[in-house]
Specification:
Elements (H helix, E strand, L loop, with lengths): L2 E6 L4 H11 L7 E8 L2 E8 L2 H10 L6 E7 L14 E3 L4 E6 L5 H11 L10 H13 L12 H11 L6 E7 L2 E10 L4 E4 L4 E4 L11 E4 L4 E5 L4 E5 L3 E3 L4 E2 L15 H7 L1 H9 L3 E2 L4 E2 L8 H5 L3 E6 L1 H18 L3 E5 H4 L10 E7 L5 H12 L4 E5 L5 H5 L2 E4 L12 H20 L4 H22 L2 H11 L4 E6 L3 H16 L2 E6 L17 E4 L6 H12 L5 E6 L3 H6 L2 E5 L7 H19 L18
Parallel strand pairs: 18-19, 18-20, 20-21, 21-22, 23-24, 23-25, 25-26, 26-27
Antiparallel strand pairs: 1-4, 1-10, 2-3, 2-4, 5-6, 6-7, 7-8, 8-12, 9-10, 9-11, 11-15, 12-13, 13-14, 16-17
The chain binds 2-deoxy-2-amino glucitol-6-phosphate.
2-deoxy-2-amino glucitol-6-phosphate binds next to α9.
C-alpha cells in the first residue's frame, strides 16, 4: 500500500527518494511523486503509473534540493491520476505533504475548507490535511512565536491540525519557510527515521534504508518528529517532548536484491527451505521433546492455564491460522477459533480470561490485524504476534510473540511467510501439546518430522519444471477449483488465493467433500480442479471426491505423494511431492501450488510482483 520516503541532509534528495520509492514498489501503488525545496521554492513532480515514469519526468526536469519527501500512492479516494498523486500543496505553496492512511472525516473538513475559500486540486482525502495545516500555520498565535524555540509555531500548527482528523495517518511534510526540516507524524500508519551521518531518512518501512544506515527510530502513534540533517526531536501529543530510541535495523540490502531471479516471488519460493530452517533454528528441545520460544513473555504456569486460542489474521496469514487450528487441536487438544481480523475488530465475542490471542501477520502492519489485537488487549487478553518484520507495529504492541525469521518478503503474493507461519504453528502445537498430554515419544517424533522438513521442501522445489508444463496446458482456463480435506483444506484456499492474486483467474478453494454442495455445478471440461491428495487419514475419501469431478468431465490436476499410482491412473496431471507427516502436508503441497500460480501468471503476461490493485502491506481498513 502507499509508501513514504524523505531525505534531509547535504546530498540531492531525489537520489534517495527515487531509490527508496523503487524499494517500496512491492507494497503496491498506482502513482508516485516527490517534492524538494530548491532556492526557497517547493518543486513538485508527480506522475500516474510506475516510479519509472516519475524517474523519466525528473530526468526531463530535475528537482534540486537536499530536503524532500516522496510517495507511492495506492488509490483510495479518486483514481490514479497526476492530480491525485501526492505530494499535495497547502496555502500559497507554503507546504507540501505526503500521506498514508485514510482520513475518515475528510468530507466534513473539505466542505468547511471550501467555504473558507480553499481550492482543491485533487479528489483525495489527503489534500484536506495540507489546507488545514496551512491555515493553522498562518494563525501563528502570540504564544507560539517563541524566540527560544523556533519550531514552536510549526509544532503547534501540526498538532492543531492532527486533532481535527479522524482516521489513520503517516505523514511527511516539508515547509517553504523551514527548508531544512521534515516533519513526520503517525497514527496507525507506520513511519521510521533512518539515522545517518549528517543526514536523516524517513520511510514507511525499513526497506528503503537498507544500505544507507542500520540505525532506525520507530515513530509511535501520536508522535510527531521534527527532523533536520543533524537532529531528531520527538513530541508526543499528550506528553510533550519525549526521547527516542535508536534501534538496529535488521535488513541487509543484499536480502532485498533479486540476484539471478526474474521475480521476487520465484526467489522467495526457492528460499523456503532456508526460511523454514530459520523458523526452526534454536526452537527444538530434544531433551524435553518440546519447542522453546524466547519471546512469549508468559511463564509455563500461565501458559498451562490457557484453555482456548483465538487466531486472527487476514489473507494468506488467515490461511496459515487455519492450518494452525488443525495442528493445535490435533496435537495439543486445545480449542482454537480462527477469526478474520477485519471481523473480529468489530465483534464482541464472549472470551474468558483463559483465552490467548495470536495475531499472525507477515508485515506486522496490516491495519485490521492491528485493530483486532488492540481490541483484544483492551479487553485484558494476553496478545501474541507471529510476525516476520522485526520491529513492526504489531510486533511491538503485542505482549509477546514469535518472529518467523523468513527474511524480507518482497513479492506481493506471500509464499515463504506462509510456510514459515505454518512451521511456527506446528511448534506452538508441539509446545502446548507437551504442556498437556502429548507424550515424550510423540514429541520426539514431531521434532524428527520437523527436522526433516527443509530437505523435503527442497525436493518439492524440484517440481518447478514439471509444474511449468502443466501451467502452460491450463493457462487459458478462466475458472479453477482447489480441493483438499483436513490439513489440506487451508492449503487449497491458499493455492486458490495465489492463482487469483497474480493471474487474475477466478479460483475457489473448498473442502473437497463440500464441493458437492454447490461448486460442483461449475465443473466442466474447461474448469480444472486441483486436488491435494497425499496419503493420510482421508486419502480414500478425497479420491472419492476426485472421481466425482472426473465423472462430470472436469480435468484434474493432483498433488500426490511420490510413487502414488492410484491417483496417477485417475488424474489428468499429477505432481509428486515427498511424503511427510499429515500435519506437514499443507507446507509441502503448497510449493507446487505456488509454482502453478506463478507459471500461469507468466503465461498470461501478468506482472507477478506487482499484481493489479493489490498491496503488500494493507494499511487502510
Ligand atoms: C498474500 O499473498 C496476500 N498478498 C495477502 O492476503 C496478505 O497475506 C494479507 O494482506 C495479510 O498480510 P500480513 O500477513 O502482512 O498481515
Amino acid at each position: 500500500m502507499c509508501g513514504i520516503v524523505g531525505y534531509v541532509g547535504s546530498n540531492e534528495a531525489t537520489d534517495f527518494l527515487l531509490e527508496g520509492l523503487r524499494r517500496l514498489e512491492y507494497r503496491g501503488y498506482d502513482s508516485s511523486g516527490v517534492v524538494t525545496i530548491d532556492e526557497g521554492e517547493l518543486q513538485i513532480t508527480k506522475t500516474a503509473g510506475r516510479v519509472e515514469e516519475l524517474s523519466k519526468a525528473l530526468k526531463r526536469s530535475p528537482a534540486k534540493g537536499s530536503t524532500g519527501v516522496g510517495h507511492t500512492r495506492w488509490a483510495t479516494h479518486g483514481p490514479a491520476t497526476n492530480e491525485n498523486s501526492h505530494p499535495h500543496l497547502g496555502g500559497d505553496r507554503i507546504l507540501a505533504l505526503v500521506h498514508n492512511g485514510v482520513i475518515e472525516n475528510f468530507r466534513e473538513i473539505k466542505q468547511r475548507l471550501v467555504q473558507h475559500g480553499c481550492v482543491f486540486a485533487s479528489d483525495t482525502d489527503s489534500e484536506v490535511i495540507a489546507h488545514l495545516l496551512a491555515i493553522e500555520l498562518e494563525k501563528k498565535t502570540e504564544d507560539t512565536l517563541n524566540e527560544i524555540d523556533p519550531y514552536a509555531p510549526l509544532v503547534a500548527a501540526v498538532q492543531n491540525t492532527l486533532v481535527q482528523l479522524s482516521g489513520t495517518f503517516g505523514l511527511a511534510i516539508v515547509f517553504r519557510d523551514w527548508p531544512e526540516t521534515i516533519v513526520a507524524a503517525r497514527l496507525g500508519s507506520p513511519l521510521v527515521i533512518g539515522v545517518g551521518e549528517g543526514e536523516h531518512f524517513i520511510a514507511s518501512d525499513g526497506s528503503p534504508l537498507a544500505g544507507h544506515t542500520d540505525k532506525i527510530v520507530y515513530l509511535a502513534d501520536h508522535e510527531i518528529a521534527i527532523v533536520t540533517a543533524d537532529a531528531i526531536r520527538v513530541v508526543h501529543r499528550d506528553q510533550g517532548d519525549v526521547g527516542h530510541d535508536v534501534k538496529l535495523l535488521e535488513i541487509d540490502s543484499t536480502e532485498v536484491e533479486l540476484n539471478e531471479y526474474p521475480h521476487y516471488m520465484l526467489k522467495e519460493i526457492f528460499e523456503q527451505p532456508e526460511a523454514i530452517r530459520n523458523a526452526l533454528r534454536g526452537r527444538l528441545d530434544k531433551d524435553e521433546a518440546t519447542a522453546v520460544f524466547g519471546g512469549l513473555n508468559l511463564s509455563a504456569q500461565q501458559l498451562q492455564k490457557v484453555k482456548r486460542f483465538v487466531l486472527t489474521a487476514c489473507g494468506t496469514s488467515w490461511h496459515a491460522s487455519l492450518v494452525g487450528e488443525y495442528m493445535i487441536e490435533a496435537l495439543a487438544r486445545i480449542p482454537v477459533e480462527v477469526e478474520y481480523a477485519s471481523e473480529l475488530r468489530y465483534r464482541n465475542p464472549p472470551l474468558d480470561t483463559s483465552t490467548l490471542l495470536f495475531a499472525l501477520t507477515q508485515s506486522g502492519e496490516t491495519i485490521d490485524t492491528l485493530a483486532a489485537l488492540r481490541e483484544m488487549k483492551r479487553k485484558g487478553h494476553p496478545t501474541m504476534a507471529i510476525c516476520n518484520v522485526v520491529g513492526s507495529t504489531i510486533a511491538r504492541e503485542a505482549d509477546g510473540g514469535i518472529y518467523l525469521h523468513a527474511g524480507p518478503e518482497v513479492g506481493v503474493a506471500s509464499t515463504k511467510a506462509f510456510t514459515a507461519q505454518c512451521v511456527v504453528m506446528s511448534l506452538l502445537a508441539l509446545y502446548f501439546g507437551r504442556l498437556h498430554h502429548l507424550s515424550y515419544e510423540d514429541g520426539l517424533r514431531i521434532i524428527a518430522d520437523l527436522e526433516a522438513l527443509p530437505e523435503k521442501v527442497e525436493r518439492a522445489l524440484e517440481t518447478s519444471n514439471h509444474v511449468r508444463q502443466i501451467a502452460s496446458k491450463y493457462a487459458n482456463c478462466n475458472n479453477f477449483l482447489y480441493l483438499g480435506r483436513q490439513y489440506n483444506f487451508p492449503a487449497a484456499l491458499e493455492g486458490a488465493l495465489k492463482l487469483k492474486e497474480i493471474s487474475y483467474i477466478h479460483a475457489e478453494g473448498y473442502p473437497a467433500a463440500e464441493m458437492k454442495h454447490g461448486p460442483i455445478a461449475l465443473v466442466d471440461e474447461k474448469t480444472p480442479s486441483v486436488f491435494i491428495v497425499p496419503r493420510g487419514a482421508v486419502y480414500q475419501k478425497v479420491i472419492a471426491n476426485l472421481e466425482e469431478i472426473k465423472a462430470r468431465g472436469g480435468p484434474v490436476i493432483a498433488v500426490v505423494d511420490e510413487g502414488d499410482h492410484q491417483v496417477a491412473d485417475l488424474a489428468d496431471d499429477i505432481i509428486e511431492v515427498p511424503k511427510v507427516a499429515d500435519f506437514l502436508q499443507p507446507i509441502v503441497a503448497s510449493i507446487p501450488l505456488q509454482f502453478l500460480a506463478y507459471y500461469i501468471a507468466l503465461e498470461r503476461g501478468c506482472d507477478v510482483d506487482k499484481p493489479r490493485n493489490l498491496a503488500k502491506s494493507v494499511t487502510v481498513e
